[in-house]
Amino acid sequence: MITVSVCMIVKNESQVLARCLDSLRTIWDELIIVDTGSTDDTMEIARRYTDKVYEFAWTGDFSEARNFAIDHATCDYIYSADADEILEGENVKAFEALKLCLDPAVDVVQMYYGNQLDQGTVYNFDRELRAKLFKRLKPIRFKDPIHEIPDIDPIVIDSDIVITHRPTSMHAGRDLETFRKIISGGNKLSSRLQKFLDRELYLQGSVEDYESFAGYLKGVTCDPERTADEVIEACTLLVRYHRMRGEIPQMFDNVIKVMAHECNSEVCDELGAYYLSLGDYDNAAIWFFNAAYEVTPILGIKAGKETALLGLIDVYKALGNEEMVTEYTNRLKED
Fold first, then answer.
1. pLDDT tens per residue, range 290-333
2. Of the candidates 167, 253, 262, 317, which lies 20 to 30 Å from 96 by C-alpha distance?
3. Residue 17 and residue 42 in contact, taking contact as beta carbons nearer than 8 Å
4. Residue 154's CATH number
């Protein structure tokens, strides 16, 4: 039977921490909680479950905090948990069974991370396999200052265990601030982190957020070391940015750049919104229809269905066409 150190980094998680820890009680042999600057009673709650509670001065780098936590672990394996996730029902039993039978040659066990579309997270699928359980004596360090992942080349197995992600709020403001810090420090985002920034900005960004990243995104579109996909994503975000600012020539300049490669639902939605604002309902309907049925989304899955169908409903409401309003309302319910 293997032993497991549950390692967590937390900050102001008083609303959800006990819920998480209660769900994990039977799987840990050691619980390590690292607080990165809570101002609520998170640490008090943590100390009800373990005496291994540590403080870590926040540096803006999630990997540094994760690595500090795992440095205190002493068990065979490390389970890296977040406070807004829980283990439920049969999944608890499956984890307990895994502890009994896991081959010690295995370095990493992947588990399903579920309920990801709740609260509008940056993911476009409701569940995915993630590396969650790691052998401690295998040299493991987390990398990337945000959306951190373990930097290892391991023997990996997949399990059927599902961890439920149940956030009570979004962390978009925190995450975007971290991205600003990385970029302002002169650091270039990896392709992986660039994708996270693009999704975060598209799904959760405010007008002010777009303003703060516009210069950086324009730089991405001119960077010869960036991939075509990275350039297209940046141009797509700039289409929205310039439409919101009423800078229509600049908007169309980025539309053309996207279409020279391959159009996507997000750009079609922006064109639909633009023509709808002009009262040009025919063109608005064409672009919203294209978003829903002719192209695919690249940043937000809802761009290809919900956003586009809502746009079509608005168009046909403006035209007084109740038959088409009903048609697209029913399609929206089906999706």
1. 999 999 999 998 999 999 999 999 999 999 999 999 999 999 98
2. 167
3. yes
4. 3.90.550.10
Q: What is the pTM of this model?
A: 0.74
Amino acid at 170: M
Residue 122 pLDDT > 60? no
Tell me how far apart the alpha carbons of residues 238 and 115 are, in angstroms, rounded to a whole number. 30
The region, left, alpha or beta by phi > 0 then psi within -120 to 50, assigned to residue 270 is alpha
Q: Are 76 and 136 in contact (CB under 8 A)?
A: yes
Could you tell me which residues are beta bridge partners of residue 173?
none
Q: Which amino acid is at 288?
A: F
Q: Are 238 and 274 in contact (CB under 8 A)?
A: no
Considering the domain architecture, whether residues 140 and 39 belong to the same structural domain is answered as yes
Number of domains in the chain: 2
pLDDT digits (tens, 9 = 90+) for 161-178: 999 888 776 566 778 988
Quick one: 120 and 237 in the same domain?
no
The domain in which residue 145 lies consists of 4-165
Residues 257 and 150 grouped into a single domain: no
Q: Are residues 318 and 191 in the same domain?
A: yes
